[in-house]
Every structure is written in C-alpha cells, then in structure tokens.
Amino acid sequence: MIRVRPLAPADEPAVAALAARCELSGWDGPALAAERARPFARLLVAEAPALAGFVAAWVIDAEAEILAIGVAPEARGRGVGRALLEAALEGARAAHLEVRATNTAARALYARCGFVGAGVRRGYYADGEDALLMAWSPPASP
Ligand SMILES: CC(C)(COP(=O)(O)OP(=O)(O)OC[C@H]1O[C@@H](n2cnc3c(N)ncnc32)[C@H](O)[C@@H]1OP(=O)(O)O)[C@@H](O)C(=O)NCCC(=O)NCCS
After folding, report:
1. Whose CA is closest to 109, among 75, 138, 87, 80?
2. pLDDT per position as a tens digit, 75-119
3. What is the pLDDT of residue 140?
4. Which atom of ligand 1 lies at the shortest distance from residue 100's CA?
5. Which residues are identified as catalytic?
6. What domains sit in the chain, N to C, each tagged with a CATH number?
7. Which of 67, 71, 98 for mutating ligand 1's site (highest number of atoms within 8 Å of CB)?
8. Ligand 1 centre distance from Cα of residue 108 (Å)
C-alpha cells in the first residue's frame, strides 16, 4: 500500500537523508524548506508504510516542471516512483523535465508515465553529460 501526501516540515530531515541516499544533490533541509515556501511548489512524499520517496515539482498555471524524484533504494521497483509522479502531475495540462541521458531507471519511469523525448541539451550537467528534455501532456479522454 503506497500513500502519497504533502511533505510536512517534520519530514524535512528524513527526506533530505533520502535524497542524499538517492544521490540527488541540492535537496538538504534548508533547500526543502525554501521550496516548501514557494506557493507554486508541489512537494510530496510516499509512505509504504515507512517513508519511501519524494517528488518536487513546480506547478504554474497547470504546467508542471518536475524538479526531482527519489525513491529509497530498498523500495524501488514497486510502483512508488510512479505513484509519486502521477500525484505530482495531477491536474496538470502539460509537464516537462530534464534527465541525465544515462539515467535508465528515471527515463523508464518517465516514459511509463507518458513523457516523450522533446530535445537534448548537450553537456548540460557539470560533468559534461547531456540532458534529455522530456514533455508530457494528459492522456486524451476516450
Ligand atoms: C527513478 C526512480 C525514482 C524510480 O523509482 P521506482 O519506485 O523504482 O519506480 P517504479 O517502481 O514506480 O517504476 C515505474 C516504471 O519505471 C520503470 N523502471 C523503474 N526502474 C527501472 C529500472 N531500474 N530499469 C528499467 N525500468 C525501470 C518500470 O518500467 C516501471 O514500469 P512498470 O510500472 O510497468 O513496472 C528510482 O530509481 C530512483 O530514486 N533513482 C535515483 C534518483 C533519480 O535518479 N531520480 C531521477 C532524477 S531527479
């Protein structure tokens, strides 16, 4: 059973630790608090039943930008990432993100949720790796 809910202030230390375990930089406690203060930030955590993952997004005028998503290594492959991403996209009419070209798991998750390739930013990351741009729009209703 996966429960997705908004990130509360009390979650910040545990989410910061989880982000570090996921090798996601820039998501320490103060950064999470700063994001939470933005009215357009959507910060969610998943419990399964312990804290299993988090997602950070901006949603402005129903357009979502996925900033980060991380699932605890021991909780991966069980739908936690998908539940978080679907919750982050709820109500959005469009979404976009960038992902490291070599991040197979994240690319598979995004494709599974309906994101498609929308371009490449060559040498985007500090270590020279390319970023793939991916875009999403809601599935057409039948
Ligand atoms: C990317 C990540 C969030 C996926 O989380 P997860 O909970 O394991 O993903 P899910 O179990 O919800 O998988 C969803 C889909 O993604 C695909 N997928 C996930 N991990 C995969 C992997 N390692 N290899 C291939 N496909 C994979 C599966 O096809 C799955 O589809 P299914 O529902 O049909 O089985 C997780 O691997 C992670 O935290 N990685 C480190 C942090 C990171 O790189 N974040 C992205 C950049 S911010």
Report:
1. 80
2. 999 999 999 999 999 999 999 999 999 999 999 999 999 999 999
3. 82
4. 47
5. 98, 110
6. 3-136 (3.40.630.30)
7. 71
8. 6
* 51 CA to centre of ligand 1 in angstroms: 16
**Ligand 1 center to 87 CA (angstroms):** 15
Question: Could you give the CA distance from residue 116 to residue 112 in angstroms, rounded to a whole number?
Answer: 10
142, pLDDT greater than 90: no
